[in-house]
Each structure stands twice: as C-alpha cells, then as structure tokens.
Amino acid sequence: MDNNIYQVYEDEIQALEEEIKLLTEKYEDIQQESTFFSEEEILKSIKSFHREMQGEPQGRESPSDLKAQLESLEADLSFLMKLTGFQFTSHSKKTVEKTRDRTVQKHRLSGNCYSLSFQLEFQLLEMQSKEKVSSVITDLNIIMESGEDSGVSKFVSSVEEHGNLVTFFRSLSTYAEWYEHRRRTFLHFK
What we know:
This protein is of the alpha+beta class. Helices cover 58% and strands 26% of the residues.
C-alpha cells in the first residue's frame, strides 16, 4: 500500500516537472520575441495604441458590436470553407530563432480538404532589409493519405522540393474536389 502512495506522488511530481518544462519553454519563447524590439519601438507602439484608444468615443466596442463582428467572420469562414473545401483542424507555431533582421518559425498545420486529410510541417524564414521583408519556406514536409495514387506522391515530393505552398493548396483543392466526385460515383454503382 505504501508503494502505491509513493508511486502516486512520484507520478504527480513527474507531471508537474513536465508542466514546468513546457511553461519554461513558453516563457523563453516570449522573452526571445520581446527582446526583438528596441525600447524605442516599444514606446512608439504604446503611444500609437494610446492614440487609437483615445480616438474611439467609447474606448471599447459594445458586446453587441463584437457579436455582430464575430457572426460576420464566421459567415466569411464558412463561405471560404465551402469555396475551397479546406478545413484546418490545428496549427502550432514556435519561434526557433529571432534576431534583428531574421526570424525563423516552425509551423505545424493539419486539416482536410473535402475527404482528404493532410499535415504540413515547415519552417518560415523571414529576412528584413531596410525597406523590405522577404519570406522563404524551408524544410517543408507534407504528410497526406494518397492511397495508391502515385501521381499524388510525385506531386507531394515536387512541392516539398520546391517549397511552394500556394501550388500545393491550389492543386490539392482541385484534386480533392474531383476525388470526392469519383468516390461518390463509385459508391453509387456499388
């Protein structure tokens, strides 16, 4: 009986240690992001925020305005999902490196397009010069249920090699729509 009590305490300690580790990582990410901005930039942002808040007559939007805005956004999202067939189920972002002129973020994205599910992992490298910000996708990894279709596998490999997400989403939308039509047609004849 005493061993069971000790095991429960040890399990609780281990769970707390894991939680501390995750919170420490989040804190470090936040610290890393906050050190990216100079004191001058932070003060400018605060002053700009105060000007915006004072410019509004009420200072904050009413709950009914926020509710109407939320309903409008939900309608827009629903329209886009019907139009493209995409439904994103999860997204995570982690800052890997951040300097004054360079930021590297690791993204994980999963979802489905009609009945085909997919997962993406990639790094987004943003470089800032004097007047221009450029972004490059690196280390793209696409996981997709392609079944026995070798054409999809070749396409996914090509997209991973070139790191072109726009091509992937456009092509996947068209392919998944026709895949869904074929699936329904074959089900009809069974």
